[in-house]
Write a structure and sequence with these properties.
This protein is mainly α and 343 residues long. The chain is built from 15 helices and 2 strands. It folds into 2 domains: 307 residues, no CATH class; 32 residues. Helices cover 76% and strands 2% of the residues. A two-stranded antiparallel sheet has the order 1-2. Strand 1 and strand 2 form a beta hairpin.
């Protein structure tokens, strides 16, 4: 039961990340490799604010904002739309700089923990949309393999910049709650319950968002057919920005929840993102419930494997992807054969 509790708690974090990966992939066809990096940045930023240190994410966001503005400005000037430059200044400079300014000001102050959490989320939110504008939006119609290669390049570039911004030391923020609950012979921390609650709430929230809201339906339309979405007045570029914004929110929440239970460094997020991607693959990269269940399964597998032989923990987790891919390949092949017979 103890191992299952730990595995489900870890799987809940993987589920949040997997939901973000599926969300971005469905709308933009981008496998967002740096997603896990944003998780680590959120945890490190909150820890820095709690220690009255200015988080390195401030400088990273300002750098991305400057690059995104230059990209947008050049695009507008080439298209002869110089009148839209003030809007670009607002979206790509002023809005991202606002949480950076707030974080810079409150660092030496004794402020409530809730304000630090809100500021941390506000710092993380612009990172993914800015990365989308810089690296992915200019090549939005490229093949999936090209988008994947660019995502890997962005990850390595972010890793180097993050080392300069955050330094090599790890950090761990304080738990969001110190509550302890006894369920039979099992002791469950309030932090664990927050992880589970956040994963469930995010899954339900995404289902409601895509089924009941106009913006969610626009994102679904973009995911199904980008050309058709353009015909009916939906802008795929704006849909992609919205998808990356929601993904950044999930990454920020994941970092706040997982940070208190494990020490993260600037490059710790890559492994978290990779394991979450395995969970998303189990769901076929198309199903939110499937991705969440697959991520929880990965968390359980990791927990039990680490207990029996920690040296093979990573091997077993990633090797578990092989039979899943084989089964999906066989099922897909059977579906193709059935479709050919019908034709």
């Amino acid at each position: 039961m103890l191992l299952a509790q730990d595995g489900i708690a870890t799987g809940a974090i993987y589920a949040l990340v997997a939901l973000g990966i599926v969300l971005v992939f469905l709308v933009t066809r981008v496998i967002f490799v740096p997603f896990g990096d944003l998780v680590a940045y959120a945890s490190l930023s909150l820890a820095a604010l709690e220690e009255n240190r200015r988080p390195g994410l401030i400088w990273l966001v300002l750098l991305l904002a400057g690059l995104a503005f230059l990209t947008e400005a050049l695009t507008l000037l080439r298209a002869g739309h110089a009148r839209l430059l003030p809007r670009a200044v607002l979206l790509y400079l002023l809005l991202p700089a606002l949480p950076c300014a707030v974080a810079y000001v409150i660092t030496p102050m004794d402020v409530p923990d809730l304000l630090r959490i809100v500021v941390t989320l506000a710092l993380v939110l612009p990172t993914a949309p800015l990365l989308y504008r810089i690296a992915f939006r200019p090549i939005a119609d490229a093949p999936v393999l090209v988008l994947l290669i660019v995502a890997v390049v962005v990850h390595f570039a972010m890793t180097g910049i993050a080392l300069l911004c955050f330094g090599p030391e790890g950090a761990r923020p304080r738990p969001l709650t110190g509550a302890i609950f006894e369920i039979g012979d099992i002791i469950v921390s309030g932090q664990t319950l927050l992880m589970l609650g956040a994963a469930v709430a995010a899954s339900i929230g995404l289902l409601v968002f895509f089924a009941r809201t106009l913006t969610g339906r626009a994102l679904r339309a973009t995911a199904i057919n980008r050309v058709g979405a353009r015909i009916v007045g939906i802008r795929p570029g704006e849909a992609g920005t919205t998808a990356f914004l929601l993904a950044a929110l999930l990454a920020g929440l994941s970092g706040l929840l997982i940070g208190p239970v494990t020490t993260l460094v600037y490059d710790s997020g890559f492994v978290i993102g990779l394991k979450s991607f395995v969970g998303a693959i189990i769901g076929g990269l198309v199903s939110y419930p499937g991705a969440a269940l697959g991520a929880v399964a990965i968390g359980l597998l990791e927990s039990f494997t680490a207990f029996y032989d920690s040296a093979f923990k990573e091997v077993v987790v990633f090797a578990g992807l092989v039979p899943v891919l084989i089964i999906r390949s066989l099922l897909q092949g059977q579906a193709v054969e059935d479709a050919e017979e019908e034709l």
